[in-house]
Each structure stands twice: as C-alpha cells, then as structure tokens.
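Now for one record.
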Amino acid sequence: MDAEGLKALFEPVGTVAVKRMFGGQGVYADGLCFAIQSQGEVYLKTDAESEKVYADAGSAPFVYVARGKPNPDPFLTAAGRLGVAARDCLALEDSHNGVRAAHAAGMMTVMVPDLLEPTDEMREKCLAIAESLHHVREMIDQGARVAR
C-alpha cells in the first residue's frame, strides 16, 4: 500500500503523515507513530490490553529484522495466510539469504542451486540440496510412498 492509500485508510483518525521506515512506512498522528506498513501488511501499535485483542483475532506482531540480514517475515506471512505452522512448510530456495530466511522462519528448507553453489552453511540449514525442481518432486514422491 502506498502513502496515499495509508492516508485514506486512516482518514477517520484525522490527518496523518506517512514516512519511510523499516523498508516500509510509518503512519503518524500528531508526531507519534501508531502504525507500520511492511510487506503489504499494516501493524498497529498496541498496549498490553489491546495486544491480546489483536492476537485473539489472529493478528501477528510486527518483528523488525535489521537490513542486510535475512528476513523470515515473507515466509512467516505466507505460512500465516495459508493457516499452516511454519515448521510444517517446505521452502524451496536458490539463494543463500533465502535459505537463511526460510531456516530462520523455522521451515523445512531445500536449496535448489541456480547461480550460487551450496556452502557448508547451506547444507547445515537445509533438509536437502536438490539438483532441480524435478529432483524435489522425486524426493516428495518418495517421501509420500514411505509415509503411506
């Protein structure tokens, strides 16, 4: 959502300012930040009382991960939208930072190298290193046969 969309969303609050922050945008009223937009999600500032209301409604908290570090948020957001625990998801990644982020999210991770070869760190963080997506499908089919 862009700055104008955020201003329209919060129009009932009154005049708000939108400033870039955390790779997203902060929403301010009277100089105080009360919301953050990051990766398409809007997070409202909470207190101890309202935090429980939002959690009971299924809202996840905003967690900031410093720039330059692998960010698990996209993986956690995807799992949340699917209604599946991250630990029950399989992430397929071709980049080192993608593997790091999926692993940090707690997902089962398979690296399918493209431009970057796997390192010892990647091997430690992944369930497997697959030669191709066809190889991943074979691994899943074999796992399904074993699980039956």
Remarks:
- Residues 133-147 form the longest helix (15 residues).
- The chain has a mean pLDDT of 86.
- The domain at 73-147 is CATH 3.40.50.1000 (Rossmann fold).
- The beta strands are 17-21, 24-29, 32-38, 41-44, 90-93, 108-111, 128-129.
